[in-house]
Design goal:
By secondary structure, the chain is mostly helical. Helices cover 64% and strands 6% of the residues. It has helices at residues 18-48, 59-69, 71-90, 100-108, 124-131, 137-144, 148-166, 174-190; strands spanning 2-6, 12-17. Strand 1 (2-6) and strand 2 (12-17) form a beta hairpin. Helix 1 (18-48) runs parallel beside helix 8 (174-190). The longest helix has 31 residues, at 18-48. The chain starts with a strand and ends with a helix. 13% of the residues are buried.
C-alpha cells in the first residue's frame, strides 16, 4: 500500500509506501538499541567502581559521588544567600534578620533545584559526569585505554545524538548513526 501526501495548496508532496514506514521505524529502533547499549554499559561501569575486591557494593560512596556532581548547585545557592544578605544590609530595612525559608523559596523561583540522589533517576549527562570524574578516573583509565577527555567527548557526542532523537529535533545523520554504533561497540568491549 501507499499514501499520498498532499500539501495545503492541493499539490502532491510525496508518496509514502509501507516500505518507507518500515524502514523509518527499523532505523529508529536500531538507533534506540544502540543508545540503550551505551547507557546501560555506562551505568554498569559506574557501579563497578563502587564494588570492592570482596564484591561488596558501597551505596554510601555512590550517593556521595552523586552529591559531588550536584555540588555546583549548592555553590550557586550559597552565593545567592550571600547576595541576598548583602542586599539586605545595603538597604535601609528594619528587618535585618534573614528568613532562610523565604530565601529558599525565592531561590527555587530561579528554577535551579537539587536533583534526587537515586542512581536510577540520573540523566545521561550525570552518568557521564560520574564516569569521567577526576576523583575516580584512576579506576577507569585502564579499562578504556583512552584519556578522560576523549571518553568524555565521545559520550557527550552520544548524549547530543540521544537528545536530538528524544526531543524530536530531526533525524540524525549517517555520520551520527555510525558514531552511535561505534561507541556502542567500543564501550561493550570495555566491560
Amino acid at each position: 500500500g501507499y499514501a499520498l501526501v498532499i500539501g495545503s495548496e492541493g499539490e502532491l508532496i510525496s508518496i509514502v509506501t509501507s516500505s518507507d514506514i518500515l524502514e523509518f521505524f527499523q532505523t529508529r529502533t536500531v538507533d534506540s538499541l544502540y543508545l540503550e547499549d551505551v547507557e546501560s554499559s555506562v551505568k554498569e561501569l559506574i557501579l563497578h567502581c563502587f564494588v570492592d575486591d570482596k564484591g561488596a557494593f558501597h551505596q554510601t560512596e555512590l550517593v556521595n559521588a552523586i552529591e559531588e556532581i550536584h555540588s555546583s548547585i549548592n555553590s550557586i545557592k550559597k552565593k545567592y544567600y550571600k547576595a541576598v544578605g548583602s542586599y539586605l544590609s545595603m538597604v535601609k530595612s528594619s528587618e535585618k534578620k534573614v528568613d532562610s525559608q523565604a530565601i529558599e523559596r525565592s531561590f527555587q523561583k530561579m528554577g535551579i533545584t537539587s536533583r534526587k540522589t537515586r542512581f536510577e533517576e540520573l540523566s545521561f549527562n550525570e552518568y557521564i559526569q560520574l564516569l569521567t570524574s577526576i576523583k575516580r578516573w584512576a579506576f577507569y583509565k585502564d579499562i578504556f585505554h583512552a584519556s578522560r577527555e576523549s571518553v568524555q567527548n565521545r559520550l557527550e557526542g552520544v548524549r547530543d545524538i540521544r537528545n536530538q532523537l528524544a526531543h524530536y529535533r530531526g533525524e540524525i545523520t549517517i555520520i551520527q548513526r555510525k558514531q552511535l554504533k561505534r561507541t556502542s561497540e567500543w564501550i561493550s568491549r570495555c566491560l
